[in-house]
């Protein structure tokens, strides 16, 4: 509980929530750079299926990740509702494909339950906790860990 | 507060290094006989401002030394002392020392107090001595080496203690302490004491690593520079400490002008009689203007304050370049949109003008980052002279096109490879004077550095008129290493370029001189990393030439767009040999090599890009698509693509900023329609292809 | 200039207990691995040793360092060795590198004709 409080600060924090395969998720609002509609992506050869490719974001080459594929959810569709959230952490910019964006909510520390430690499962290391508001639970994600778990920049692909 | 100060530190260091460059340039002009009050003023101002700055920032050791120097310079300025070769030499050494002191201060390393006090003492001694030494001889444009030391009257022994600890790579890099110490001993009476305490038992000793160290005592009238020159070759590869002893510094400063054999610019290395301990090439032509030590990023002014220049951070320039790149893309989109419009002549013509303006703008901005290659070429006169002397060879250096400009980043990285190549020419290319005479050549060998622009690239050539490459030895070695099949025949060109293969020791194959060549494969790798290409041409008995092609800038590339299915790739034009339609008779299937394409008398592997990249192509039938022959590292393959599109200059965007490096891709770029196109890295593509083939072969065999 | 370390067997009439080590014509870094292996091989047999450097025509620091290491090992193991001969090239290298004191023959008096 303490760790969570330090992470989030004692003040309430704002989260951008979005839908992913029927579940609701949230990321810290400070890491969100912008939200875009779906646009054509240039595929990078020999990359994992969840790395769709890169796009041109005002001159920057930004990789686009499909979390629905990465987390093995139901089939991913790309239609007029598909949205890409551009996240910015440190110097790195990454886009994630989601099923739709919901509201920005404010959660106080008490409204967040830390994620149970499910061992060192890489698939869940990016979950900070669960935030409940209006009887709906959102799974809160740590964007930095998300990017790290996407193996971006750590391994030279071959 | 501390943060603010540090910001100023950087500027102070940058400016000081530049100022020292201009001081050095002025000193060289002085030593060439051009005694001009304005030069002396420049020199004085440099010392003065560095003194002031360092005092302000609390760099007391720099301030103290510079203060002494300033006092001496003031004497010069006031006419109380004449310029003499000896004086210029001391000033040049002071300049070097100040550079080092600033470097040490900048990187928070301890100062070499021994050297500082030694030089300080020298300067003190000069100032105490009578003001009139004879003026420097007015030899037009002839660098005057500093005089022989006056025979000092001291009965006490003085000299230098030299502590020399070779680094772990020293032997492997072809250097030999035996040679070095032998040369050291020619400087004067010398006692050598070996330190073997780090030599492990034979069973644990790495045969190619030197674990011996030496302490030598060199007596007599020897200049520190002469000693350092002996170790020039291994500068970065060993620990070298010099300590003067005895009454030393004071007496050594008494200048007596002497005229050593004059050498015409740019300093061919006459083998001066070793007996005269002439102080070294601080006074020789073209002191190395430190390319790494902050060339001005704005205009080309080599003297601070001359012609008005401003300092611009490289990030700002990159931003500017980026924005201009975007503008070019947008402008091309506009042109594309306007092309099919009816009755839009005026629009199209205006857009045409816009395009011309854009190109001009782009070129101007690129020029801002460009600097003349002279920054790099300048270190060679001294290098050639020293090395030639050391190896007993007479070498003349010609430098052509040193105002050829290239991008700052390319400039910074091209220096080392060039040094390697020149060293190789001198060590292995040029024969000894006797051998040359016996072969009917002039005793003087020559090396030429030539730089010019051609077709959007910078070309740098290093040529020598030495013995050339020994083709048979190279082939034999290559066969030994398995690089070439036992029956494979190679063209001369392919054979010579084998010396760039990893692990190739050039010494065995280039000449009979024992010793190992510096890794040509490292040279090639460095150049490839810059996006360039290197090739060697040779004529036995006549000489060799290494030609390096570099992109004008790292940021922009001339590319050929090629389409495979829905994807558009950019192939660097510099890698393309030719593109052709596939004819049935040119395609073969060879059991061990898979599909091959016959290009005249060569059989090249066919790389189906769509297979390699996992794309859905338009054509899988070779006859329906195009074969693009590309080359990298001397290897050629045929890339099978659907269609060729336009050729254009593209701005290279790194994949690493937000993603990671991918083998086979050199980066990405934005097309006119805003889409991202991947830029192919041909060596990487070939590697990928070979790995795939190897895996497939293994799988087939296992099946 | 074939880089070969001679491994000639002791000539007839040589003292049977002495391990003979003959340094080849070339003892440079190119031959260093082979020379090291050769010296180690010889060192595996008990001493004393007789080192013949009379045929050395080319030598560099790497080569000489191996000989020095061998000599130091002998010193440590308290095994004797003598120099049968040293070519002028070898002598010069020893002088330049200042390793003469390290290569003095301990126990020279036990054999005749040590260099």
Q: Can you tell me about this structure?
A:
The complex is a heterotrimer of chains A (158), B (703) and C (115). By secondary structure, chain A is mainly β. Chain A has a single domain, classed as OB fold (Dihydrolipoamide Acetyltransferase, E2P) (Beta Barrel), CATH 2.40.50. Chain A contains three helices and eleven strands. The radius of gyration of chain A is 16 Å and the shape is globular. With 703 residues, chain B is α+β, with helices and mostly antiparallel strands. Chain B has five domains: 1-139, HPT domain (Four Helix Bundle (Hemerythrin (Met), subunit A), Up-down Bundle), CATH 1.20.120.160; 157-246, Alpha-Beta Plaits; 314-368; 372-551, Histidine kinase-like ATPase, C-terminal domain (Heat Shock Protein 90, 2-Layer Sandwich), CATH 3.30.565.10; 556-702, OB fold (Dihydrolipoamide Acetyltransferase, E2P), CATH 2.40.50. Chain B has a six-stranded mixed sheet. Chain B has a five-stranded mixed sheet with strand order 6-8-9-11-10, covered by helices on one side. In chain B, a hairpin with a 2-residue loop joins strand 12 (556-564) and strand 13 (567-572). The model of chain B is unreliable at 133-155, 248-306 and 506-518 (pLDDT under 50). In chain C, helix 1 packs parallel to helix 2. Chain C has helices at residues 32-44, 61-77, 88-96, and strands at 19-22, 26-27, 49-53, 58-59, 81-86. The radius of gyration of chain C is 13 Å and the shape is globular. The relative contact order of chain C is 0.18. Chain C is 34% helix and 17% strand. The chains are: A mainly beta (158), B alpha+beta (703), C alpha/beta (115). Chains in contact: A-B, B-C. Chain A binds chain B through residues 40, 42-47, 53-56, 58-63, 91-94, 151-158, and chain B through 322, 325-326, 567, 612-615, 653-665, 668, 670, 674-678, 688, 691.
How many helices of chain C does DSSP assign?
3
**Strand line-up in the sheet with most strands of chain C:** 1-3-5
Terminal Cα span of chain A: 41 Å
Kindly report how far apart the N and C termini of chain C lie: 26 Å
At the fold tier of CATH, the topology name of chain C is Transcription Regulator spoIIAA
Q: What structural class do the secondary elements of chain C suggest? A: alpha/beta
The gyration radius over C-alpha positions of chain A equals: 16 Å
Briefly, what CATH class of chain A?
A: Mainly Beta
Architecture of chain C, CATH level 2? Answer: 2-Layer Sandwich
The best one-word shape of chain C is globular
Could you name the CATH class of chain C?
Alpha Beta
CATH 4th-level superfamily of chain C: STAS domain
């Amino acid at each position: 509980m303490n760790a969570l409080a330090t992470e989030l600060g004692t003040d309430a924090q704002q989260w951008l929530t979005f839908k992913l395969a029927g579940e609701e998720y949230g990321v810290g609002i400070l890491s969100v750079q912008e939200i875009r509609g779906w646009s054509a992506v240039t595929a990078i050869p020999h990359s994992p299926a969840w790395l769709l490719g890169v796009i041109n974001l005002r001159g920057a080459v930004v990789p686009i990740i499909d979390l629905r594929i990465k987390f093995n959810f139901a089939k991913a569709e790309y239609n007029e509702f598909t949205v890409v959230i551009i996240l910015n952490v440190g110097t790195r910019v990454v886009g994630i494909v989601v099923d739709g964006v919901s509201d920005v909510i404010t959660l106080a520390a008490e409204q967040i339950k830390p994620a149970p430690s499910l061992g060192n499962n890489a698939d869940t290391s990016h979950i900070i906790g669960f935030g409940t508001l209006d009887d709906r639970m959102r799974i809160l994600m740590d964007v930095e860990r998300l990017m790290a778990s996407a193996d971006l920049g750590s391994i030279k692909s071959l | 507060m501390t943060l603010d100060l540090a910001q100023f530190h950087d500027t102070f260091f940058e400016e000081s290094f530049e100022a020292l460059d201009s001081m050095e340039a002025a000193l060289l002009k002085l030593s060439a006989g051009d005694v001009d009050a304005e030069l002396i003023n420049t020199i004085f101002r440099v010392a003065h401002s560095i003194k002031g700055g360092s005092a302000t920032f609390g760099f007391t050791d720099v301030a103290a030394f510079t203060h002494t120097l300033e006092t001496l310079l003031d004497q010069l300025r006031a006419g109380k002392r004449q310029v003499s070769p000896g004086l210029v030499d001391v000033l040049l050494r002071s300049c070097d020392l100040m550079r080092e002191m600033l470097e040490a201060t900048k990187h928070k390393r301890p100062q070499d107090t021994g050297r500082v006090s030694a030089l300080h003492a020298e300067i003190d001694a000069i100032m105490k001595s009578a003001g009139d030494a004879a003026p420097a001889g007015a030899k037009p444009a002839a660098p005057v080496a500093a005089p022989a030391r006056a025979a000092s009257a001291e009965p006490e022994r003085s000299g230098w203690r030299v502590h020399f600890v070779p680094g772990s790579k020293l032997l492997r890099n072809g250097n030999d302490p035996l040679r070095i110490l032998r040369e050291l001993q020619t400087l004067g009476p010398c006692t050598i004491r070996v330190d073997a305490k780090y030599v492990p038992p034979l069973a644990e000793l790495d045969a190619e690593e030197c674990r011996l160290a030496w302490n030598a005592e060199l007596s007599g009238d020897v200049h520190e520079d002469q000693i350092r020159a002996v170790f020039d070759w291994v500068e970065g590869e060993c620990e070298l400490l010099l300590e003067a002893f005895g009454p030393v510094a004071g007496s050594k400063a008494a200048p007596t002008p002497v005229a050593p054999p004059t050498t015409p610019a740019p300093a061919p290395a006459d083998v001066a009689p070793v007996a005269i301990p002439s102080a070294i090439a601080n006074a020789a032509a073209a002191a190395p203007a430190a390319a790494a030590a902050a060339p001005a990023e704005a205009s080309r002014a080599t003297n601070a304050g001359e012609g008005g220049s401003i300092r611009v951070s490289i990030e700002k320039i990159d931003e500017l370049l980026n924005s201009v790149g975007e503008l070019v893309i947008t402008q091309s989109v506009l042109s594309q949109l306007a092309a099919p419009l009816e009755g839009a002549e005026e629009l199209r013509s205006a857009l045409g003008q816009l395009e011309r303006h854009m190109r001009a703008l782009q070129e101007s901005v690129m020029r801002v980052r460009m600097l003349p290659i002279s920054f790099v070429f300048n270190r060679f006169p001294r290098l050639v002279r020293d090395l030639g002397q050391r190896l007993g060879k007479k070498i003349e250096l010609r430098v052509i096109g040193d105002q050829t400009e290239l991008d700052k980043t390319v400039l910074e990285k091209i220096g080392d490879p060039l040094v390697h190549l020149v060293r190789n020419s001198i060590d292995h290319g040029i024969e000894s004077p006797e051998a040359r005479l016996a072969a009917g050549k002039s005793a003087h060998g020559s090396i030429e550095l030539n730089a010019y622009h051609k077709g959007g690239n910078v070309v740098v050539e290093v040529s020598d008129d030495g013995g050339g490459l020994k083709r048979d030895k190279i082939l034999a070695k290559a066969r030994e290493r398995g690089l070439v099949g036992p029956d494979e025949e190679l063209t001369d060109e392919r054979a010579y370029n084998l010396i760039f293969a990893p692990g190739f020791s050039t010494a065995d194959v280039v000449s009979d001189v024992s010793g190992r060549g510096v890794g040509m494969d490292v040279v090639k790798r460095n150049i490839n990393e810059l996006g360039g290409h290197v090739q060697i041409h040779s004529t036995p008995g006549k000489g060799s030439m290494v030609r390096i092609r570099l992109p004008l800038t790292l940021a922009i590339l001339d590319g050929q767009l090629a389409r495979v299915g829905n994807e558009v790739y950019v192939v660097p034009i510099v890698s393309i040999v030719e593109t052709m339609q596939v004819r049935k008779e040119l395609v073969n299937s060879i059991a061990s090599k898979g599909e091959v394409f016959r290009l005249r008398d060569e059989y090249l592997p066919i790389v189906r890009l769509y297979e390699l990249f996992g794309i859905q192509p338009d054509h899988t039938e070779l006859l329906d698509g195009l074969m693009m022959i590309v080359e990298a590292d001397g290897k050629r393959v045929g890339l099978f693509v659907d269609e060729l599109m336009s050729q254009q200059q593209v701005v290279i965007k790194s994949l690493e900023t937000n993603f990671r490096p991918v083998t086979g891709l050199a980066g990405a770029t934005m097309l006119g329609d805003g889409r991202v196109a991947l830029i192919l890295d041909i060596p990487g593509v070939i590697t990928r292809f070979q790995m795939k083939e190897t895996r497939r072969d293994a799988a087939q065999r296992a099946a | 200039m074939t880089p070969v370390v001679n491994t000639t067997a002791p000539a007839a009439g040589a003292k049977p207990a002495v391990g003979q080590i003959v340094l080849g014509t070339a003892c440079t870094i190119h031959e260093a691995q082979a020379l090291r292996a050769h010296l180690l091989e010889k060192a595996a047999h008990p001493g004393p040793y007789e080192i013949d450097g009379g045929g050395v025509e080319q030598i560099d620091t790497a080569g000489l360092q191996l000989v020095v290491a061998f000599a130091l090992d002998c010193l440590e193991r308290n095994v004797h060795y003598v120099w049968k001969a040293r070519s002028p090239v070898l002598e010069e290298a020893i002088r330049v590198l200042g390793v003469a004191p390290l290569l003095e023959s301990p126990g020279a008096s036990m054999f005749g004709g040590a260099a």
